[in-house]
């Protein structure tokens, strides 16, 4: 046996449930921080653009995802 991990289908189902909940919680934290729905929405919308920019920079500089880029690797793998 290789390990005791869950099958990918189970993990995918869990992510489909938890990810929207986490995003809503983050939105509410941003809303209560800025006291503005506009600022919270702008902040939430810019995150995917930052991810795309990060992927371009990794590509142009030719760096790998190893080392300090572990969190970045998780974002890319799970499609934020």
Describe this protein's structure.
The chain contains 3 helices and no strands. The longest helix is centred in the first third of the chain and has 27 residues. The protein is mainly α. Helix 1 crosses helix 2. 76% of the residues lie in helices and 0% in strands. The protein is flat, with a radius of gyration of 16 Å.
Helix % is: over 70%
The number of E-state strands comes to: 0
Average pLDDT: 78
Q: Structural class of the helices, strands and pairings?
A: mainly alpha
Keywords:
3 helices; flat; 80 residues; mainly alpha
Q: What's this entry about, in short?
A:
The chain is an all-alpha fold. The protein is 76% helix and 0% strand.
Structural topology:
Layout: H1 8-34, H2 37-61, H3 70-78
């Amino acid at each position: 046996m290789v390990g005791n991990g869950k099958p990918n289908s189970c993990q995918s189902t869990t992510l489909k449930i938890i990810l929207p909940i986490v995003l809503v919680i983050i939105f509410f934290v941003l809303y209560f921080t800025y006291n503005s729905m506009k600022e919270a929405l702008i902040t939430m919308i810019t995150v995917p653009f930052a991810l795309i920019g990060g992927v371009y920079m990794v590509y142009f500089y030719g760096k790998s995802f190893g080392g300090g880029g572990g969190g970045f690797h998780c974002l890319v793998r799970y499609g934020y």
